[in-house]
Design goal:
With 695 residues, this protein is of the alpha/beta class. The protein has 24 helices and 22 strands. The structure holds adenosine-5'-diphosphate and magnesium ion (MG).
Length: 695
């Protein structure tokens, strides 16, 4: 208990029972600390005056100086509004009041020099400001130059608990005679991480003497938020690392060296090399590796996986690679086999459609240790799949699997196999830390050299012939194309009408034998899928018409056109994944999003975003804004809603600092002996109720 912070807001000067009730109901503010933690969303510089001339559509709250020219009450007797014509000497705008009309009418003086403060609106090409704050210029109260602006609800506004009212409460609060906010971090930590005290931070955030003070206060609170967001995850990770011993790999690596020196088809990017070093360090640490490898589509995760496999094989262990779809597993198998043959490494493929006879052979070779790498779908985790000595498991496109499946695959090792999970889901690092909290994190943040940015366009149905003609021209230049139809979930009941119709139409426009158009979908037999994929990969077919089975991972560098039909039906990350199937070679690639003319605002935003940027990170940010954090797989429980000031994208460096502080705390003072105030704070903190159990 802290007397000051825990005081009921009713006792604050300027609040009272009625306002307290409103604040409790509308904003869930009960105690002084709640009120203090209700941060302003922006600040206005009250020393600056604008002219009407400078106002545009984006203008937010501003201050104008001038005179009222005339006042008029308009409307029906029961619902009148007050309209005042305000001039800054050069131009005029309307000031509007819908409430308190009588009072305003008697208090507004025509011709007096006044200061008007509010947010301009555009209405019918004219500018107005409703319910502005008004002060006489002569006896203007000397307010601080920087004024905090607070969010208020409609209900609060009508009850006159507006931003100004809250600002006054905050003044009373931070200047309260009993003002006392205990520090929660140790002196040492505050010094090291450049945190101003909690008490000062609350003062500065509500009543900032300068922009510098705002920054310092915001930094402190962002740090605090990111500290408590990450603490449980890091704690968990450290505990697990201590508990679980891993297979100790030696840095001997003849196979690896041989492959890199003689068979690597390209030179690795700096990011790939860095990630490989991180993986190697883990593998040789004696502890179990559990690492998330994130890299945008096309950044080259597969080769990193393959080189990691070699580290395992060099140490006498087997590896397995699990992919979410059969097509992807097949593709990995085909391309990895080509690489593996160069160093006489035997690899196998196991999917749901592997025949019993093939299975028997596979099982034998696995148990005898002949097969070094087994690629497959979730068929890999079935009980009868037994390895001789599994040392490394790799999971591609992690977002399609659950934690349980990873654990199951790992359990196939006699010791504790290392795990590398790969994802193209462009989640910010900090978010990755909390969603996949128990994993270490690596990122490939660099594309292979020589890639050209994919050009993306949005077209409506009537332009389809033109689009197809374009496709013809590109095919004439030796390129290949994908045409994708939405079929979000492939189930028995789903019919393939769009896909089949599209295929038929394409066949007419691209007649045989000049053109080879092939169709691929999830319900086909594995052997057929493999054949179609192979034909396309080897350039034997020109166009691959398909459902979203090709969404993840497929890699055919010569394919340079991606046409997505009914693109409005796809989510942003899916569109980005699909687009990622092209732009994998040196040629200019194109992605064309076909949609109907009628689009929801949300769909329009998605398609526009796709046209505008190729960056998975930017798209995921937009996606988060559209859908909210809550919708992104696994984030609901991650405590992200605790974040008021901090942004995982923009404040990544603060998150990093907080992480350092946490690691230091947990490793040097795990019992919080030297961090009593922090311990005390956490005991009472919302959402940290189980803290004792975790710690
Ligand atoms: P993703 O990260 O999406 O899984 P892939 O591993 O499929 O990407 O790689 C995409 C393409 O880039 C592949 O054709 C691969 O051979 C190629 N590639 C990977 N790394 C490099 C590199 N360092 N230089 C040139 N091409 C590369
Ligand atoms: Mg991939």
């Amino acid at each position: 208990m802290n007397e000051f912070l825990d005081t009921d807001i009713t006792f604050l000067k300027g609040v009272g029972t009625m306002r307290a009730e409103i604040l409790q109901k509308e904003l869930k503010l009960f105690r002084f600390e709640d009120l203090l933690s209700y941060f302003p969303f922006r600040y206005v510089d009250r020393s600056k005056f604008y002219t009407i001339n400078e106002i545009n559509q984006d203008t937010s709250y501003i201050q104008l100086k001038g005179k009222i020219l005339n006042i008029e009450e308009v409307g029906q007797p029961r619902s009148t509004r007050l309209v005042a014509c305000f001039s800054d000497g050069k131009q005029e705008i309307e000031l509007l009041w819908f409430k308190g009309v009588k009072w305003m009418k008697t208090n507004l003086r025509i011709g007096e020099e006044i200061v008007v403060f509010g947010k301009p609106n555009f209405y019918n090409g004219r500018i107005n400001m409703s319910h502005p704050e008004i002060e006489s210029a002569a006896n203007r109260t000397k307010s601080a130059p920087l004024e905090a602006i607070y969010h208020t609800t409609e209900m609060m506004k009508t009850r006159r608990v507006d931003s100004k009212a809250i600002r006054l409460m905050m003044t009373n609060l931070v200047q309260h005679q009993n003002y006392l906010v205990p520090e929660i971090f140790s002196v040492e930590m505050c010094r090291k991480y450049k945190l101003i005290s909690r008490g000062k931070a609350f003062r500065f955030i509500h009543q900032p003497p300068s922009h510098k003070h705002i920054e310092a206060a915001q930094y402190r609170f962002k740090f605090e938020e990111l500290f408590f967001l990450q603490l449980p995850f890091i704690n968990q990770k450290i505990n697990r690392k201590e508990a679980v011993k891993g297979i100790h790999f030696m840095p001997k690596n003849p196979l690896f060296k041989n492959f890199v020196a003689n068979h690597l088809p390209f030179s690795l990017t700096g990011a790939q090399e860095r990630v490989l070093r991180e993986i190697k360090t883990d593998l040789c640490s004696g502890q179990q590796m559990n690492r998330l490898l994130q890299g945008d589509v096309g950044s080259g995760k597969t080769i990193v996986a393959f080189l990691s496999v070699m580290m395992a094989v060099d140490n006498g262990y087997q590896a397995s690679l699990m992919a979410p779809t059969e097509i992807l597993a097949i593709q990995h198998y085909i391309s990895l086999k080509e690489l593996a043959e160069k160093i006489d490494l035997e690899i196998g493929l196991l999917t749901g459609s592997t025949t019993p006879k093939e299975r028997r052979q596979l099982h034998e070779k696995l148990q005898s240790g002949t097969i070094k790498l087994l690629v497959g779908t979730h068929a890999l985790i079935e009980d009868m799949v037994i390895f001789d000595n599994l040392g490394l498991v790799i999971i591609d496109e992690q977002h399609r699997f659950g934690v349980a499946q990873r654990a199951k695959l790992q359990s196939k090792g006699k010791q504790n196999p290392h795990a590398l999970v790969m994802t193209a889901t462009p989640i910010p690092r900090t978010l990755a830390m909390s969603v996949y909290g128990d994993l270490d994190y690596s990122v490939i943040d660099e594309m292979p050299a020589g890639r050209k940015a994919i050009k993306t366009a949005h077209r409506f149905g009537f332009a389809r012939q033109k689009v197809w003609q374009f496709m013809k021209d590109e095919i004439a230049r030796g390129r290949q194309a994908y045409v994708v139809y939405p079929l979000i979930e492939e189930s028995e009941t789903m019919h393939y009408k769009d896909l089949n119709n599209g295929y038929d139409e394409l066949l007419q426009f691209f007649p045989r034998p000049t053109y080879q158009v092939e169709m691929l979908h999830g319900k086909m037999k594995a052997a057929d899928k493999e054949a179609k994929m192979k034909d396309f990969a080897q350039g034997k077919s020109h166009i691959l018409v398909s459902t979203t089975v090709i969404e993840v991972g497929i890699n055919v560098p010569n394919a340079s056109i991606m046409i997505i039909e009914s693109a409005e039906k796809f989510g942003l990350s899916q569109l980005h994944q699909l687009r990622g199937r092209v732009g994998r070679g040196a040629e200019q690639s194109y992605c064309i999003l076909m949609s109907s003319k009628k689009l929801s605002t949300n769909a329009e935003t998605r398609l526009k975003a796709m046209v505008k940027t190729n960056s998975g990170f930017e798209l995921s940010e937009i996606d988060m804004k559209l859908r909210g954090f809550g919708d992104i797989a696994g984030t609901r429980q991650s405590g992200l809603d605790q974040l008021k000031l901090a942004s995982l994208n923009e404040d990544a460096h603060i998150a990093e600092e907080a992480r350092k502080a946490i690691v230091e705390l947990l490793t040097t003072d795990p019992d919080y002996d030297r961090h009593q105030s922090l311990r005390h704070f956490m005991k009472n903190k919302q959402g940290y109720k189980d803290w004792e159990k975790i710690a």
